[in-house]
Design a protein that fits this description.
Pfam family, one: Nitrate_red_del
Strand content: under 5%
Helix content: 55-70%
Largest sheet: none
Number of strands: 0
Keywords: Chaperone
Order of helices and strands: HHHHHHH
Organism: Pseudodesulfovibrio methanolicus
Protein name: Molecular chaperone TorD family protein
Length: about 190
């Protein structure tokens, strides 16, 4: 499992990427992902085209091929389903609230990465308490690994994915693998 700073900073960079709203956000967030994960991003990026690709894959307005919501990858997909409430409960367990609650389902990838970034260091203060350890084990060891690989696969199955989106998805895949707790790590 990666150290806490790597987990937190990687989650922040990826959160900002998947929360992007326009080409300027994507450009800024892509630079942070490239920096943190030491992934090369070309210089001749068409950021307007990347924004179009991002919206085509993750936002809409048409049906998207790779929805960034955990609920979409359940056996019976349902928006605002059980994963949404589970993420809301995890935020509450840490005394936090989903940013923008009620506007976007709580199980959006950016919110889940925000939760990972918000967790205190397990080696310091409240980061070692039982509730935080339980949320960490659930989020990094069970919940995210339960749907993010299908999300990554859905993106990679699409033709002509832009370089920034490909880079972010590769970084997400690597981050998830590096942050996954060892089996039984949260048990005393």
């Amino acid at each position: 499992m990666a150290d806490h700073a790597h987990t937190r900073d990687g989650a922040r960079a990826l959160r900002d990427f998947f929360a992007s709203r326009d080409a300027a956000d994507l450009k800024r967030a892509s630079a942070a992902v490239s920096d943190h994960f030491h992934l090369t991003l070309g210089r001749d990026i068409d950021w307007t085209g990347a924004e179009y690709d991002f919206n085509r894959l993750f936002v809409g307005p048409m049906a998207v091929p790779a929805p960034p919501f955990a609920s979409a990858y359940q056996t019976e997909p349902a928006l605002m389903g059980e994963p949404t409430l589970a993420v809301r409960d995890a935020y509450r367990a840490l005394g936090l609230m989903v940013p923008d609650q009620g506007q976007t389902p709580d199980d959006h990838l950016a919110f889940e990465l925000d939760l990972a970034a918000a967790m205190p260091d397990p080696e310091e203060g409240a980061g070692g308490d039982a509730v935080t350890a339980e949320v960490r084990e659930w989020l990094l060891g069970e919940h995210l690994p339960g749907w993010v690989p299908a999300f990554v696969e859905a993106v990679k199955a699409q033709p002509d994915v832009s370089a920034p989106v490909r880079m972010a998805v590769d970084a997400l895949e690597n981050w998830l693998e590096a942050t996954r707790p060892a089996a039984g790590a949260g048990q005393a």
